Structures are given as C-alpha cells and as structure tokens.
Fold:
Amino acid sequence: MHCASAFFAAAPERITARDEARFFGRLKTANNTFKRTEPSRLAGIDAALVATLAAHCSRVDTALDLGISSGVTTLELMEALRAADHAVEVTGTDRSLRARLVALPHGCRALVEPNGHVLQYEVLGRAVRPWERRLDRWTGMAAVRALVEWRLREPAMARAAAGDGEEVALLSPRLRRAGAFRWHEDDITRRNDAFVARFDLVRAANLLNRHYFAPDTLRDAVANTIAYLRGPRAWLLVLRTHGASDHRGTLFRMGEGRRLAIIDRYGTGSEVEDLVMELAG
Ligand SMILES: C[S@@+](CC[C@H](N)C(=O)[O-])C[C@H]1O[C@@H](n2cnc3c(N)ncnc32)[C@H](O)[C@@H]1O
Structure:
C-alpha cells in the first residue's frame, strides 16, 4: 500500500502500523524532513510517564501532543494512557497536516502539500518518489523520476493550487479511528487562545529543539506550550531523541502560581529545561 490513492481509500481497520510506516516513510516534506516515525520509538518514555502519573495518583483527561507528524507516537501515547485507565481525550497539532490528492492525465496522480511541494507521484498504479536515493542512479529510477517530474510536476502543482482533487490528512488512519482524538494545523510559535489553560498533559516530543528555532522564536514556542497547561497539577513533557533511542527529556509538573517543578529526567534531560523553568518562573 505505497500509493497515496490506495492508502487513503483503504478501510482504516485494514491498515497496519507497518503499512503506515512504509507509506509515511517515503514522504519527504518541503522542509526536507520525512513523515517517518518508527513505531514504539517512545514506548519506554510512555511507560515511565504512566508510572509517574500512577505514583502521584494523577488522572489525565485531556492531553495535547505538539508537532505530531503522522501521529504514530501520539496514538501510542494515547494507548498507553488508556491502558492505565486514563479516559483521555487527545488533541494533536502540527504546523502542516494536510495535502491534496489530484488526478493527472493518463490515470496518474500526485499528492501535493499546500505550498505546492509534491510528496508523491503515482504512475501506472506505482508510487514514484520525487526525491532521490543514491541507489536510483543504478536502477534507472533517476531517469524515470526526471521524466515524471518533467511531465507531471507543473500540472500537479496547478491542479492542487486550483483546489482540484481530494483533501487528505497526512495522519495515521489508526489514530483517526481511535476516537476521542482531534487534530489541528497549528504553529506552536503563535499563541492559540483556544488552547490556553485547557490541558492536563502537554507533550512536545522532538519539537522544542534549539536547532529548529531561532532563540526568540523558541522562547515564544516554549511560552505557548506552558500557557496550554490547565493549571496546578498539570504535566509537561519535553523531549528530544538523539539517534534512534537516546531520549533526553524532562517531565515538569505545575504548582501554585503556574510555577513548574522538575519531576523526572530521561537521559540527560531536555535541552530546553532551563528555558522552561525561566519562562514558568
Ligand atoms: C520530528 S517530528 C516529531 C514527531 C513526533 N512528535 C515524534 O517525536 O515522534 C517534528 C514535527 O514538528 C513539526 N513542526 C515543526 N515546526 C513546527 C511548528 N512551528 N509548529 C508546529 N509543528 C511544527 C514538523 O512538521 C514535524 O511534523
């Protein structure tokens, strides 16, 4: 199920974690990042979080996951919380979650981001990546892609810009059918008043990183993240994964006066721990 048309047409219950990993793993966004998320990558952190919540006899009814990409780790967090009897409603946000699937001549199709960047072409029922792998030079794929781009890129961009085709959410179908889940396109660097003081748990995994944002923008993003915590006894988890599994994060809990205390550290702790403490002080 590599083609976007087959992936989005399939009944969600037929789509497995492996199907999602394969499909999203081939989508490279305009920012040069992949939609890829390895299943179970954050399972150890989810388990540690759930254990800490239990140790504090804390219930989480509302959670906000920021920068969810395809939402695979969001689904896993939701499942870990529900398995521990938290009847949680989850909101997931990302700067960019939508794309258009447009029909092109000769039965071809393209999956296009709102900025016009093509994520995937579909030719004769086969997915063609618009980005190059080193191997492509030896398999002849580089020549095929050049031909496809030459014939289809402009019509794909024009049809998407005209609003043709079907809008799709680049999200795990398993997450969308999990219930009690909402998604929003939202930029963490801009305050969203609808989120202020609403959530028992806010997670920012692989988002609030110094290499993503300029210092002032990072301050705004961290301040917004803190603002979305409901109030005393709410939890904030910030983490970044280095390599495949070196998770460095910090779990904070809000006290009176919206001050934060550090409850747990994973690995060496979050690289923005000091900034979080400063902005919550
Ligand atoms: C590396 S992925 C993290 C996915 C997931 N949280 C995880 O750890 O598996 C980072 C995500 O942050 C999103 N992102 C980047 N800048 C953002 C911003 N300013 N506001 C919201 N999301 C943003 C990207 O679109 C991308 O999907």
